[in-house]
Design goal:
Elements lengths: L13 E14 L2 E7 L4 E7 L5 H4 L1 H4 L5 E10 L7 E12 L13 H6 L1 H4 L3 H23 L3 E2 L5 E2 L11 E3 L5 E4 L4 H11 L1 E9 L12 E10 L3 H22 L1 H6 L4 H5 L6 E4 H10 L12 H10 L4 E4 L12 E2 L2 E5 L1 E6 L4 E8 L4 H10 L8 H5 L8 E7 H9 L20
Parallel strand pairs: 3-5, 6-10, 12-13
Antiparallel strand pairs: 1-2, 1-4, 2-3, 4-5, 7-9, 8-9, 10-11, 11-18, 13-16, 14-15, 16-17, 17-18
Helix pairs in contact: 5-7, 5-14
The protein binds 4-amino-1,4-dioxobutan-2-aminium adenosine-5'-monophosphate (4AD) and magnesium ion.
The site of magnesium ion has 3 residues, from strand 17.
């Protein structure tokens, strides 16, 4: 089957394009159809004097988004969008589309979100989804090439991974309540004792009552977990991964980034080493820049924006106060108020894309933290077992896919970084 993206291989040849009408215009006896097939957009030319009148008249019937098959010859033309054109010989119509709700004029975001099932056909949304797909492939390839085994963690679980306040609960037969996974991490930890280095890639759920440009209710997370890695090695790994997938996307999705008018030079700067600053230094920088933050607090959305505008490359903030972070992080050996962890912030105002840490590997300390946080101890028996049977130092991290897509594409809000966003006030379509 012919696809528009492969046009350069078909110059002078007759092909069939199967797709949808993007737009049309007429200049007397010559008509122009802009046809998209999901891989590109191509201009088709209908010349009255060379066409059967029955074929020529189909131009008038065609509405925006009508589905069609055109037969014709590919020509190179520098002036045409995409650089190629098709001189049309025949047009076959699959369906004449009803009046399409999304027109070239501008629409409000709510209207577009209500029509997300149609909106994804647009040029910019198509580019974002293509970048997302390239990113996913790059991430998977990175882990594969670096000796990580892929494991699937359960979605239904009783062990709270992050915080009790943001759980989605459901009844689980005779076994009480279960909740949708906020993270696959705890299960990834179990898996390293079998496979050494693993990653998970799946949907995660947070009933967060926040309506910010960085929050989704359902989002996709990639979580690496590595036996015998300390927090430094964990940061080295994240840096290597992020450099790899950003440069791969620059290389293989260049055209989509151009469609999005992304400043590609900013992405080309994403090379190791990234910046690394301690939480203590970070608080100083934030205070100097007008943030009301106090030592001991986690970084808010505004703090993320300030910090990530401050640097031209991703920056790690490491070793946070223990009580600002989740129960499983390893206590700092020289300062029990801190944990060995890091957040990675993307530049250009985007903010946190990764949360990672060394894990508490001491049975008693971990049990103590579970109790301090008031977590249901009975759900963590299996997790505590991992500290009883051959416990080892280990670390891991979770990369939020939509925030990463948002950053790489240079879009403001994560809702456009996923095909069908779930937001606090939206579950349609
Ligand atoms: O920092 P978080 O909460 O870390 C974890 O879940 C760890 N268990 C990961 C690990 O160590 N294996 O989430 C990780 C990342 C964030 O940095 C962010 O990119 C993304 O997940 N994220 C969200 N993305 C969109 N919407 C939300 N509501 C998100 N919450 C977290
Ligand atoms: Mg985090």
């Amino acid at each position: 089957m012919f696809y528009i993206k492969d046009a350069s291989e078909y110059i002078g040849k007759e092909v069939k394009i199967r797709g949808w009408l993007y737009n049309k215009r007429s200049s007397g006896s010559i008509k122009f159809l802009l046809i998209r097939d999901g891989t590109g957009i191509m201009q088709g030319i209908m010349i009255e004097s060379e066409l059967d009148p029955q074929v020529f008249s189909k131009f008038d019937d065609l509405t925006q988004e009508s589905s069609l098959k055109v037969t014709g010859t590919i020509r190179e033309d520098k002036r045409a969008p995409g650089g190629y054109e098709i001189t049309i010989k025949d047009v076959e119509i699959y369906q004449i589309a009803d009046e399409y709700p999304i027109t070239p004029k501008s629409h409000g975001t709510n209207f577009l979100l209500d029509h997300r099932h149609l909106w994804i056909r647009s040029k910019l949304q198509n580019a974002i989804l293509n970048v997302r797909s390239e990113l996913i492939q790059a991430i998977r390839d990175y882990f594969y090439q670096n000796g990580f085994a892929m494991v699937d963690s359960p979605i239904l679980t009783k062990a709270i991974g992050e915080e009790a306040a943001t759980l989605f609960e459901t009844d689980y037969f005779d076994l009480g309540k279960a909740s949708l996974a906020q993270t696959g991490q705890l299960y990834a930890e179990a898996a390293i004792f079998s496979l050494n280095k693993v990653y998970t890639f799946g949907p995660t759920f947070r009933a967060e009552k926040s309506k910010t440009r960085r929050h989704l209710i359902e989002f996709w997370m990639i979580e690496g977990e590595e036996a015998f890695y300390d927090n430094e090695m964990n940061m080295d790994l994240q840096e290597d991964l992020v450099e790899y997938f950003v440069q791969r996307v620059v290389e293989r999705a260049h055209q989509h980034l151009e469609t999005l008018e992304r400043d590609i030079s900013a992405l080309e700067k994403v090379r190791k080493p990234f910046y690394r600053i301690s939480y203590d230094e970070c608080v100083e920088i934030l205070k100097k820049n007008g943030s009301p933050i106090e030592w001991g607090q986690d970084l808010g959305g505004e703090d993320q924006t300030i910090l990530s505008t401050h640097y031209d490359k991703p920056v790690f903030i490491y070793n946070f106060p223990k009580h600002a972070k989740a129960f499983y992080m390893k206590e700092h050996p020289e300062n029990p108020d801190l944990v060995l962890c890091s957040d990675l912030f993307a530049p250009e105002g985007h903010g946190e894309i990764i949360g990672g840490s060394q894990r508490e590997d001491d049975y008693d300390k971990l049990l103590n933290r579970i109790r301090e946080e008031g977590l249901p101890e009975e759900a963590y028996g299996w997790y505590l077992d991992l500290r009883k049977y051959g416990s080892v130092p280990h670390s891991g991290f979770g990369l939020g896919l939509e925030r990463t897509v948002g950053w790489v594409c240079g879009i403001e809000h994560v809702r456009e970084a996923i095909p069908f966003p779930r937001l606090i006030n939206r579950i349609y379509p």
